[in-house]
Amino acid sequence: MTAKITIKKTFKGLLLGAAISASMTGVAQAAEVEVLHWWTSGGEAKALGTLRDSLQGQGIGWKDMPVAGGGGSSAMTVLRSRVMSGNAPTAVQMMGFDILDWGDQGVTANLNEVAKAGNWDAVVPAALKKFSKTNGQWNAAPVNVHSTNWVWGNKAVMDKVGIEIPANWDDFVSAMQKVKAAGLIPLAHGGQAWQDATIFDGVLMATGGIDFYRKALIDLDEQALTSKTMQQVFDRMRVLRGLVDDNFSGRDWNLASAMVMNEKAAFQMMGDWAKGEFLNAGKVPGKDFVCFRTPGTQGTVTFNADQFTMFKVDDDRHEAQMKMAAAILSPEFQIAFNTVKGSVPARTDISDEAFDACGKKAMADLKEAGANNTLVGSMAHGHASPAAVKNAFYDVITAHFNGDMSSQEAVKQLAASVKNAI
Ligand code: BGC
Asked: How many domains does the structure of the chain reveal?
């Protein structure tokens, strides 16, 4: 029997052990990794700290290169200029199609040896592997699996207003209207293109279902893009626009999470990195906050996975880079990181024992969606189409959300700008 992997010793214990043996053997921090990422919120930084500590325990130094901005667009811009000037970082947080793009450029490091030693082919889910590898070469080490079709609710606010977890889209909207009538903010949101798009993932799935999601966001089928269903998706986005507060524009996602935590708002529609913020603030799932799938999307998962793409580096950084790749896929790290980050492991053989109720649900949902063929990549987070198409979606979704564009006009512009980007 292959038992699922659980934590035998605490991760902290492992790190301490490694740190002590490194200092006893006098290993100097000769090598270092330079890590480009967009994990700048409290919960994200805490999760990333588990990786930094693990590497430091092995005598590997950490040069941090944070570039704020969910979805990673700004980080990707910085990356391009670094690679163009011949000075690529060691490891770069990256998602989906961006990894494939870089894999094609011939600038990424070959992780096959580490992957073979760690048996990655057997333990990394196929949905992730398809992005980590180009022509049989592993370019990236998968860190986690997140998904975007989640809602985070404040339990006290829900109780005060007298609302339950909504079973479908209409119930969700009625619940939010009740919150509004009670003088509170129904939906905490940050008006940034990637956040508008994150909401759009869930709204589209709730409105059109899994087949429509695939046709519109993955196949980019023109009929689907210009359909009545797509108009309805924009109609629903307009309804949501009426349920956010007046100061939503430009707000960072973690500040929107804080509004839910502080009982200013009832809900946030956001990927499960939001849970990392709740946990970081000492909030308890089921008691202080609830997690539920975007009403109407139950049984489906719109996933995104962070991976560290490794770039070709000089010999002096190569060994540290390979150690970093190996550390990322270790079961201990996968548990330590993902229980803090709000995501779930990028390996299929990890027990859910160490995870909280939302994490257990996320793991079960992922498994079920994988088995039922209802697991699809998030458009908003680079797992449905290459960056140019993703940006075409971003542009129209955000222009519609922030202006007074009609749904008919939005559909027309969407089909045109996607066509242009293909
Ligand atoms: C990443 C998450 C991150 C979030 C907000 C997403 O694109 O996958 O890891 O927490 O952006 O920064």
From this structure: 2
